[in-house]
Amino acid sequence: MLHETGIVAELVGDLAIVQTQNKLACSSCKIVDTCGNGIVEKYLSGKIFSSEVYNRLNAKVGDQVVLEIPKASITKASIIVYLVPLLSFILFASVASLFSYSENIIILISLFGLALGFVVTKFYNRRLLINELYLPKMVSIVNTGSGNNCLSAGQKSSDIIDVNQI
Question: Of 119, 115, 96, 116, which Cα lies nearest the Cα of 107?
Fold first, then answer.
């Protein structure tokens, strides 16, 4: 299980909007500037992620809570996000090359396949949002009513990323 600590920012019915702050995990690595993971984490470090979770613990606004999600869910979702568009791209390129189209047409058809792969992934992602296996779960309340907001001084609300909109 993967665990993350966040702060309840808002309550909407039986849901809690929990804000978590991304932390740079690669800072001590020597190849952080050349690694794709390090580059992405540099862009996202300090960003606030907003997630909807079922409030089964009756947490209040300002409570610090621990969220968890199974590693298998993350792995499966990652495979879908990365492989479906790539396989769609390769499939469309292969089929287009079988028909002996010109190189420019094969490229256009391949890009169409890639775009279609992204669309399929987006629709599949929306289906997963209703499956509790892929949703973070609130497992404990660490501090109650601390009143802290996840936004630190100098941070803008534009730094908040709603994970449900990705």
Answer: 96
Can you give the pLDDT of all 166 residues of the chain as single tens digits? 778 888 999 998 888 999 887 665 565 566 666 676 666 666 666 677 888 888 889 888 988 999 888 888 888 888 888 999 999 999 999 999 999 889 999 999 999 999 999 999 998 888 776 677 777 888 888 877 654 454 444 444 444 444 454 4
Burial class (CB within 10 angstroms; exposed 0-12, middle 13-18, buried 19+) of 48: buried
CA distances from 150 to 8, 91, 119, 138 (A): 9, 44, 32, 17
Sequence-separated (6 or more) residues with CB below 8 Å from residue 6: 18, 19, 20, 21, 51, 64, 65, 67, 150
What's the token pair of residue 157?
Answer: 């609300």
Rounded distance, CA 56 to CA 93, Å? 48
Helix (H, G, I), strand (E, B) or coil at 64: strand
Contact 47, 161 (CB under 8 A): yes
Going from N- to C-terminal start, the domains of the chain cover 2-165
Q: What is the pTM of this model?
A: 0.62
